[in-house]
Amino acid sequence: MPEAEAFLLAHGFVRAARLTSVEGAVEEMRASLTALRDRLLARGKVPAAARMVRLREAPRGQVARLYAEFILHHPDLPAARIQQRLERGQLDDSTVLLVNDRGEGMILWLLDGSLARVLARVVTPSCQGGWANALLLATALEWGCAAGAARVRFESLDTNQDTLKLAQRFQAQVVEVKDRYVLRLGPADAAQPA
Hints:
Number of domains: 1
CATH topology: Aminopeptidase
Shape: globular
Order of helices and strands: HEHEHHEEEHEHEH
Strand order of the largest sheet: 2-3-4-5-6-1-7
Distance between the termini: 34 Å
C-alpha cells in the first residue's frame, strides 16, 4: 500500500524494519545444505559435543532460555503466537541444537499440509557464523522432508543478508512483505498529563 507509506512518512514516521516472507522447494535446499553439513562434519568443523534433538526431547529450561533471550522481546517475531503453539505442542518436531547440553540454537517450525512454516530461527552469538546454521538448517529440512514437506516458508529481516541470499540462491518466491514504522516522540510528546 504505497499510500499508507506516503502517509506515515509525511507524518514523521520512519521505517524501522522490513520483514520478507519467502517460499521455496524443500528438496533442493535439503540436498545442498545436508551436503554442506556433511562436509563440515567430515572436516571436523562441528564440535563433538554438538547434537541435534527435537524440541520435545530438549531440556525445557534450555528452550525457555533461548525463547526468553531471542524471541520474547523481539519486535518483529510473533512471540505470543509462538508461545501458544509451544504450549499446544504444535512445535514439538522443531529442531534444537545442543552443545554440551546447552541450547545454542533452534528452528521453530510446523507442518501445514505439505508446507513447512518456519516461525523463528535462533543461534546464540557464540555459535553464529557457520557450522551451527548449517547443522540446524540441514537437520530441519531433513526432518521436514521426512514429515512430508514439499515447500518451506520462512521470513527474513532486511538486515539479515545471509537469509536473503539463501532465499535468492534457491529461487524462493516472495509471498509477503511487511514494513514496521515507528514515530519517535520528543520530550513534549512523550508525557502528556491525563
